Amino acid sequence: MAPSKQTDSTQPAPDRQREAQRNAVVELIRVAPVAEELGERFAAAGHALYLVGGSVRDALLGRLGTDLDFTTDARPERVRELLTGWAETIWDTGIEFGTLGAYRRGTTVEITTFRADSYDRVGRNPDVDFGDSIDGDLVRRDFTVNAMAIELRARTFVDLHGGMDDLVAERLDTPAAPEDSFADDPLRMLRAARFVAQLGFTAADRVVTAMTEMSAEIARITPERVQVELSKLLCGEHPRRGVELLVDTGLAEHVLPEVPAMKLEIDEHHQHKDVYRHSLTVLDQAIDLERAEDPDGEPDLVLRLAALLHDVGKPATRRFEPGGGVSFHHHEVVGAKMTRKRLRALRYPKDVINQVSDLVFLHLRFHGYSDGQWTDSAVRRYVNDAGPLLPRLHKLVRADCTTRNKRKASALQRAYDDLEERIARIAAEEDLAKVRPDLDGNEIMRLLGVEPGPIVGKAWKHLKELRLDRGPMDRDEAVEELFKFAREQGLDV
């Protein structure tokens, strides 16, 4: 049994609390036309309405968005009545859980009737019971920083579980005992790692203990829900911290076992304690490159997955060489297959699976360039094989250059600078983004006098290979090569 929650003996500085509360009020004023209207509408009908959960947390942090969560003592059908005539759009897809959604003037709201749920601790969906007080509603929530509320009309704070203290201390804790919270809904363990990644908070000791002891309970959660939380974690501000919490508590063994499997594998360059730590460093560096290119851009899930998983094939390919060396031959091939299998199991979309596994497969190709000069043909093939993934591949490869040897690191970066310069030069000359044979399928059929069929595809591929090897050919040369190929195939031309 984990220890019960203890109140921090060092109270948050009053000025920090006041600043956080001022942030919340400022944020509420910013959305006041909608929030105030709703509060007045519910109050006039004799009902209380509270801004609640993540919305209050984000208001206190000064980052409230335009998706707002509310809770009320009004039952769902009464909520529908109060929204009718006020909202531009209403939806009730969550009404069985007491939730109605609405949209008005650029703001989306979800209003949920007070809940006092019970769980069978077999699945994760509760038996929904409507409650009668804000107190009962807040205690059932996942974390204290999500268990605060603001009464709309008076704008008074309700904080029954030390949420403000935890927010100021950047601590993630549960309102009730974490064992009970996670037994009710094991997904909350993944949400803990996700919030650590998103907010940069530290999980309370008792939360870490409960996650460790109960990690196997995550098997109750569907792969689809696991995937959603994992994606949000990786797209957070501090994804490394979230991954480390998953691994340290044993949760990763159940949801992404390929990552902790790298923990004991020694990198062939002996530049990191193990491949696991190396992969976390690559993740950090890929994110730095992503943000440097577009500071205000959306997180790149594909790049981050590829950075985390790029070396998952090393454990299966490790070989101890004479003289004490270690090799991981073809780990990119094995890793791409492992990545595809895991992402399929997590029900990722097909395009994400293909892109991530392709990046894992391609990430080692550059090392052949750094070891010796590539021909223009090899550069074309690098660009052609990467296709639209080339910008991501650039970031992944650069992020993977993590040696502590400054001279070697500088040499690797100079080599990749040179490769990018060559790509740019050849692209300007040859339009590498659209590498195609110098004759299209219709011309091939006309010149050979054949109907559509396998021979046309073979001829097209042959001409494309020549295009990659030689660069652009003039028309006469392309026609001559086509006829030469056709004669080798037994055609009379």
Automatic annotation (TrEMBL):
Its EC number is 2.7.7.72. CDD domains: HDc, NT_ClassII-CCAase. Its cofactor is Mg(2+). The keyword Nucleotidyltransferase applies. Residues 1-12 have a biased composition (Polar residues). Keywords: Coiled coil, Magnesium, Metal-binding, Nucleotide-binding, Nucleotidyltransferase, Transferase, tRNA processing. Residues 1-20 are annotated as: Disordered. InterPro entries: Bact_CCA-adding_enz_type3_sf (IPR050264), HD/PDEase_dom (IPR003607), HD_domain (IPR006674), HDIG_dom (IPR006675), NT_sf (IPR043519), PolA_pol_head_dom (IPR002646), PolyA_RNA-bd (IPR032828), tRNA_adenylyltransferase (IPR014065). NCBIfam families: HDIG, tRNA_CCA_actino. PANTHER family: CCA TRNA NUCLEOTIDYLTRANSFERASE 1, MITOCHONDRIAL. This is CCA tRNA nucleotidyltransferase.
